[in-house]
Amino acid sequence: MTDATTSRASNATPELAPSEATMERLVASAHQTAGPYWHLVDFPEWADTTRHFADNLPEGGQRITVTGVVRDGTGAPVTDALVEIWHADPAGRYPDGNGDPTAFQGYGRCATDKEGRFRFVTLKPGPVPVGPHAGANAMQAPHMAVALFARGLLQHLSTRLYFEGEALNETDPVLRAVPEARRGTMIAKPAGNGAWTLDLRLQGEGETVWMAV
Amino acid sequence: MSEVVHGYRRPDPATQPPLNSPAYGSTAARHPKQPLLELPHTPTETSSPLFTAARYPELADLTVLENGAGQAMGERIIVGGRLTDEDGRPVRHAMVEVWQANAAGRYNHEGDTHDAPLDPNFLGRGRVFTDENGFYRYVTIRPGAYPWRNHHNAWRPNHIHYSLFGSGFAQRMITQMYFPGDPLLPLDPIFNTVSDEAARNRLVSTFDLELTQPERALGYRFDIVLRGREATPMEDDHHD
Ligand SMILES: [Fe+2]
Question: Structure pTM?
């Protein structure tokens, strides 16, 4: 790759300003399945994003659990899946890339158990801006990105988890792009005491809305 | 504001495996049947967790256990390469996780029932971080082939699993690195799910004499490319 960069650069005619044509264009590597033995990089404590914070949770942080069962097209539990979540902090902020590595971040990883169940402990995220292309006041409802890897998944599956009862759910641009009849597959239900549940269905009846991210 | 990332480019489908691949039996009941919804990229997709070696310690030599009791069996190799995006930008300080079978083709995993010996000195997992230029490197044992029951006489080619994070969660990727000249590659349904031949072959590492260390180990180079950024909309250049 280093060699390619060098030769591309020397081939470029000097009078040309840097442009798309002279930029190095590579192609993203292909995904491959995580397979059934990915647990070699499983660390069960990663399912608790609050683990570094003992008693000093970030301000406004509401501790929640998120659980669910992953099922395949036959309705059988998926017992070898790797589930990841990624979400904003309680104020709706993400790390900026140069951020404080000791600050809270809503990244969790959890293996499904023999019943196909995952369980995360985390802080409820706040509303997140739609992004730099939308107005500063355009907000997304509180949500988590969910990534699911497993044997039989050549690329991971992606969806989002929203929280039932959030007013912003009515205007969230991603939820609104989903046919109403299927929105419920992305909206977790409260089970009391900060517990939220959402099952994931890979295929078939009640199939989760999976997204091309 | 040049660092504001609006989103990432969408892949050419031929360069990525499909979710439904009949030759790989496990996809049958696990691939979605509904079309995927195209998700516009928002800060959720353009941000990523930050991993540091302080909290996620490196394990760059898989051939010795932390207690240093003994050496793993098999052919010691050095694997290294560069992690960039599609524009050649190095992905700096990125966490690279790897896992693999031992030299006999057996994973140190309770689910692996292949009748091949476990190696008490080999766990088969590693973690390293890329440097300023996106380079990573670790020392391991060349993994063995193993049978996997997908079809009659099915054997996975030698491979090392990789898990990667970029600067946006939309760049998240798990893949596999293969070895050059492996006779099992043309027979492997997982490798061959990538229809574009060049894309497939980029998953095959190359023997590298520069990574090779005299009197120690052969070197294999494996570069990995994460999705590139979408062109930044021009309005960034306008000032009212
Ligand atoms: Fe494997």
Answer: 0.92
